Amino acid sequence: MIPKRSVGLILAVITTMLVVANQQEVGLARDEIVYMQNGMRYADWWIGLVKLEHGISKQSITRTFGGPGATDNNREHPPLMKTLFGLSQRLAHEKLGVDEVTAFRLPSAVMQGVLVLLVFSMVFALWGFLEAVIASLLIAFLPRAMFHASLACFDAPIMTLWFATVYAYWRCLDGRKWPWQAGVAFGLALATKHNALLLPFALGVHYLVAGVLSARAKQLRAGAFAREVLLHRWRIIVSLAVVGPATLFVLWPWLWFDTYAHLKQWLVFHLTHVHYNFEYLGMNWNAPRFPWHVALVTTLFTVPVVTLAGSAVGAGVWIAKRRESPDRLRAPALLLALSAAASVGPFFLGTTPIFGAEKHWMPALPTLCIAAGVGIAWCARGLASRSRHRTPIIATFASVVVLAAVVETATAQPYALTWYNALAGGAPGGADHGMNRQFWGVAARGALPVLARLAPANGTAPVYSHDASPAWGFYQKLGLLPKSLPDAGHEEAGIARSKLAIVIHERHFNRHDYLIWKSYGTVQPIYVVRANGVPIVSIYRRP
Predict the structure, then answer these.
(1) What is the pLDDT of residue 15?
(2) Is 219 left (phi over 0), alpha (psi -120 to 50) or beta?
């Protein structure tokens, strides 16, 4: 019989395999191309350093990791995942023969498996085996999260490393002498994406509350009470404040020189980030103020309804049983709630960029799924409480709930950005509500087989590739497009040169249809790629 603790590892491996399989049909995001190219260069620098092919110099580091421009060598984003993408390409593709895109995306898939393992471990320790299995499966079967984990990007990995920091911090509240794990996890999160900087707000508030609970339990008074609140686990604060930044520093060579200036440039870039176009409830948004409810409504429309309902029940269970909750002095439910609040909170301000929708606040999802695991297990046990067949009833109820999330996740792929849940009315309902259909040009992948069939036997047919332009060369390298279909170029000049054209449907891209109609003398596409009936890419051919 498999030990219960081993189930989490099994679920993690299965999740990784599912993500790897899923990404085969997911198109290349334009951001991925940037991360892949720079990741290979980062990896080569580290490989060269280990092999003593070069030393550590300001010139070589700047040439690889930095530069005078704000986006030179993608210096605006920390390097951890990009470096792993590059190392994976060098090993899995060049040495082991794994196809190149899969090799680049493999680290994200592994990170998603690690998240499942961490969720299982924390929930198993606090609430039990049934809750752990349900929570782990629900975090594995989130349609949008599955999609983001299928990309060589940072959004799924930061969800993992954010939660890893929360988990390590909670574990280190046990009073261990050297709580280095919390600092290392925080440093890895910082080295992945800038929103890790929000974590101290959640951990700081929780630390103070945990200190108050500890002081009350010890029945301390006045000065001793305050001292206990501030210093009850002071080593964790040192770990987060010292080991965390040190880990970031070690992993990011660009910080090895002119550290203060480079840190300032990194932070200023994101504090003044450009606002890209994004459709929400029928309007195109590209400048503040944004509606305060963007994160709330988008989450309600993109998380499976069974998971949302389970999380609401689970939150109620946490509140109702707070005095008898497990590990009361470490307040795990409060920690998870603060973690979610820190992740989502900035989007209620109306000034934080919203162009990536759910990907920006994905670190809140583990809290939702853990609450759902607790809530669904509570419902299952209540349903079976008066029956002599408790185990089959509990297993059936939990399986049906999880299966609903599985079906939604399978239905959503590979165009999960177009998918919306039953509250929205599915993908068609999301489109009717004026929710964003996609971004990053990913959906162009579905148009490639049609374009390939239209390729001329002799000569070329330039294609206006629209938002898929950054990935066009890579698609040809992979053999998904023949060389006879070159990229025609950008905007009106590209359309004028083209014989074929695609438009990737987002509200602010409507003008590209109009430009093509004018140039081609027809408004009729020859093919439309659809996701659950919703048009996402139109293909035109010049008469």
Answers:
(1) 98
(2) left
Cα 220 to Cα 232: distance, rounded to the nearest angstrom: 12
The helices-and-strands tally (H runs, E runs) of the chain is: 24, 6
Question: Alpha-carbon distance 67 to 74, whole Å?
Answer: 9
Looking at residue 387, what is its pLDDT? 81
Structure tokens at 495: 């359309």
The per-residue pLDDT for 385 is 84
- Edge-to-edge strands of the sheet including 500-504? 463-464, 500-504, 534-541, 527-531
The average pLDDT across 182-204 equals 97
Q: Return the residue matching tokens 């109009």.
A: 514
Asked whether residue 163 carries a pLDDT value surpassing 80, the answer given is yes
Sequential DSSP letters for 5-30: HHHHHHHHHHHHHHHHHHGGGSPPPH
Write down the pLDDT at residue 461: 95
Is residue 436 scored above 80 in pLDDT?
yes
Helices (H), 173-279: 180-190, 199-217, 222-231, 234-238, 244-251, 259-271
Predicted confidence band at 406 (pLDDT cuts at 50, 70, 90)? very high
Domain range summary for the chain, segments of one domain joined by +: 4-407, 442-541
Q: Per-residue b/e over 82-94, b at no fewer than 16 CB within 10 Å?
A: bbbbbbbbbebbe
Q: What is the pTM of this model?
A: 0.96
With beta carbons less than 8 A apart as the criterion, state whether 301 and 435 touch: yes
Query: Considering Cα of 461, then 466, then 470, then 472, what sign does the dihedral take?
Result: negative
Mean pLDDT of 32-46: 97
**How many Å apart are CA 232 and CA 404, to the nearest integer?**
44
Phi and psi dihedrals of 463, rounded to 5? -115, 130
CA distance 184 to 420: 36
CA-based angle 117:118:119, to the nearest 5? 95
User: How are the residues of the chain apportioned to helix, strand and coil, as percentages rounded to the nearest 5?
Assistant: 65, 5, 30
pLDDT band at 388 (very low <50, low <70, confident <90, very high): confident
Q: Is the peptide bond before 289 cis (omega within 30 degrees of 0)?
A: yes
Residue 236 has pLDDT above 90, yes or no: yes
Rounded CA-CA distance 249/244 in Å is 9
Q: What is the pLDDT of residues 251-266, one digit of tens each?
A: 999 999 999 999 999 9
CA distances 316 to 275, 279, 309, 485, Å, are: 37, 33, 11, 57
Q: Which amino acid is at 441?
A: G
| Three-state DSSP state, 325 | coil
**φ, ψ of residue 350 in degrees (nearest 5):** 85, 5
Q: Give yes or no for a cis peptide into 414 (omega within 30° of 0).
A: yes
